[in-house]
Each structure stands twice: as structure tokens, then as C-alpha cells.
Amino acid sequence: MTEAVVARRVLTEYRYRPDRPTLVLAEKRLPRDIRCVASARRFVKDVAADWNAAEDVPEVAELLASELVTNALTHGVTGTSAASTIRVTVSREDSLLVVDVHDPCPALPRPRAAGSLDAYGRGLAIVQAFSHRWGWAPTPYGKSVWFQLLAWP
Q: Which of 36, 77, 107, 116 is least enclosed, having the fewest CB within 10 Å?
């Protein structure tokens, strides 16, 4: 299956839409600095904990947000203004916690098949393995990569 076919299939199958009305619990903007990943991790974990998400959800959300923010800062700012930012939104949609990472780059994320000795290339596989659902969507300002966790069963 070609990458374009896979992207089209995923985009037509996903349930979450960035323009869908949801309860936004919190939002944070980050500068283009890889040192901000730790701040994003704490932010997502704290929001999930503050809103009484189920047992391990804050820690899982922290891990998955770290992967998406790292990807956004590493790959999602290529060719964009140095003043551009990454936006992290934490929302609630029924029983789901939704973390949405927006970056200014329109290029869609590409899952990689990392070898056992590769230092990079596992982020999206981790997101896929631990999330209820994940995906991406083009936006007028770049793209949004998101995941959902069952947080309030």
C-alpha cells in the first residue's frame, strides 16, 4: 500500500476532528526549543491528573505527548519561521482524553520501521501501541497530530 493511500485511509477512518466541539481542558504554546519537551510532558500529565483521569492515564499521556512534541520540534518546524510555535491542547471528548499537538509544517507524519539498534524512529509506534486511537489532520496552519486515551470509563 502506498504512503498516500495509507494516509488517505487513516484520514477517512479517524473519529476525532480538530474542528469538532470538545471541552478544552488546557492549552500551552511552546517555542521552537527541544528543551521544552520536559515542560510539555509535565503540562499534559498535570492536566490529566487535575481532571482525575483514570489510574495510569496521566503517565501514559505524558509519554505519548513527549513523543508527539519531540516529533513536532524535530520534524514539524523545518522550513518555518523561527518565531513559530508548537501548540499542545488537552481536551475531553466524552470518556476520552485527547492530546493534540499542532505544528506549522504541512508534511504529514511518517511512521518508521526502526531497527533494533536505531536510536530514533519509534515515536509513532509507541503512540499507536499505547493510545486508544491516534492520527493526524492537515490544518490551515500546518498539521495536528493527536491521540486519545480512555480516561473516564
A: 116
- Who contacts 96 (Cβ-Cβ below 8 Å, separation ≥6)? 132, 148, 149, 150, 151, 152
Q: What is the CA radius of gyration of the chain?
A: 15
Partnered with residue 134 across adjacent β-strands are 147
CB 151 within 8 A of CB 132: no
Cβ atoms of residues 145 and 126 within 8 Å: no
**DSSP sequence for 57-85:** HHHHHHHHHHHHHHHHHHHTTTTS-TT-E
For residue range 85-109, what is the model confidence (pLDDT) as tens digits? 899 999 999 999 999 999 998 888 8
